[in-house]
């Protein structure tokens, strides 16, 4: 079984013999190009995960050390805004 036949079997694709020959030529040229790329010396290049120098903008996760009374007041305000409440928790509809 040729490599093309194996790939086609894995992909569960059936094609004509003429198309197989064309596909073999295309795969061969792709693999030749990959071999050329493998010959390049990239040892001096810096690794990168993205072509642009993008930085994720996030805030630092800090614990707010307010007094217990202030935290309780804030919790009550949030609970008062909810449509349903059960004790000191917001009651929501089941999603799973």
How would you describe what is shown here?
This protein is mainly α and 96 residues long. The protein has a domain at 3-39: Histone, subunit A, CATH 1.10.20. The protein contains 3 helices and 2 strands. The protein has helices at residues 3-11, 17-39, 68-81, and strands spanning 85-86, 89-90. The protein has a two-stranded antiparallel sheet. Strand 1 and strand 2 (89-90) form a beta hairpin. The radius of gyration is 30 Å and the shape is elongated. The two termini are 48 Å apart. The mean pLDDT is 87.
Major pleated sheet: 2 strands, antiparallel
**Helical residues, percent:** 40-55%
Radius of gyration from the CA trace?
30 Å
Instruction: Quickly give the structural class.
Output: mainly alpha
Q: According to CATH, what is the class of the domain at 3-39?
A: Mainly Alpha
Amino- and carboxy-terminal Cα gap:
48 Å
Q: Would you tell me the overall average pLDDT?
A: 87
Q: What sort of overall outline do the alpha carbons produce when their principal axes are compared?
A: elongated
Give the SSE string: HHHEE
Enumerate how many helices there are, as a single number: 3
Strand content: under 5%
């Amino acid at each position: 079984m040729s490599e093309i036949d194996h790939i086609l079997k894995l992909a569960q694709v059936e094609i004509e013999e003429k198309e197989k020959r064309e596909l073999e030529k295309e795969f061969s040229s792709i693999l030749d190009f990959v071999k050329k790329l493998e010959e390049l010396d990239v040892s001096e290049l810096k690794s990168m995960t993205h072509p642009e120098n993008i930085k994720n903008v996030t805030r630092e996760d800090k614990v707010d050390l307010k007094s217990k009374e202030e935290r309780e007041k804030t919790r009550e305000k949030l609970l008062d805004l909810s449509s349903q409440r059960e004790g000191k928790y917001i009651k929501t509809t089941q999603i799973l």
